[in-house]
Amino acid sequence: MIELTSEQRRAAYKKAWNQANREKHNTSNKLWRDKNKEKITLYKKAWRERNKKQQALYDKLWKQLNSDKVNAQTNKRRCAKLNRIPKWINLETISQIKNLYKLAIVKTKETGIKWHVDHIIPLQGKNVSGLHVLANLQVIPAVENLRKNNKFADFIGANKEN
């Protein structure tokens, strides 16, 4: 029989109590976090400072595993900078736009060909500028998107530079 130290017994008791009183434990933790937001922020900031390499690896891995979120956020920020996201856009539409970025990644993995989310009407066209809305987005092969560049091909089929 293995003898536990007093510290190990205390940790085991605490774990068992937390599991048996999960709701009370969660409420208590939430109250503590709400009261100590600044303390938590400072602790996390100090930890990141002390562990820059580990944090950089974590950030890199997260970005690789969540490239759809990274791409959607990057494009959202770029479009906001250009004032191309309308005020009336709702959370459901934003979610649908994020799903297009997920679809582009899925198609890339399935086909082995890189796919992009393209603005049908460019955000910075010469004669016309589109919005960052669902109706102005399409998932197309990267080659076609790069070939299209900042041009708007109207629906009649004529390639016009806008």
Description:
This protein is mainly alpha-helical. The protein is built from 7 helices and 4 strands; from the N terminus they run ααααααββαββ. It has helices at 6-20, 22-35, 37-50, 52-65, 67-81, 91-111, 142-148, and strands at 115-119, 137-141, 152-153, 159-160. The strands form 2 sheets. A two-stranded antiparallel ribbon has the order 1-2. Strands 3-4 form a two-stranded antiparallel ribbon. A hairpin with a 5-residue loop joins strand 3 (152-153) and strand 4 (159-160). Helix 4 (52-65) packs across helix 5 and helix 5 (67-81) crosses helix 6. The N and C termini lie far apart (80 Å). Residues 155-162 have low confidence and may be disordered.
Helix content class:
55-70%
Which structural class fits the helix and strand makeup? mainly alpha
- Rg from Cα: 25 Å
Per DSSP, the total helix count is 7
Helix-strand string: HHHHHHEEHEE
Largest sheet: 2 strands, antiparallel
Question: End-to-end span in angstroms?
Answer: 80 Å
State the strand order across the main sheet: 1-2
Strand-residue fraction?
Answer: 5-15%
Query: What is the number of beta strands?
Result: 4
> Residue-averaged pLDDT, rounded?
87
Shape: elongated
Task: Extract low-pLDDT stretches.
Answer: 155-162
Summarize the structure.
This protein is 62% helix and 9% strand.
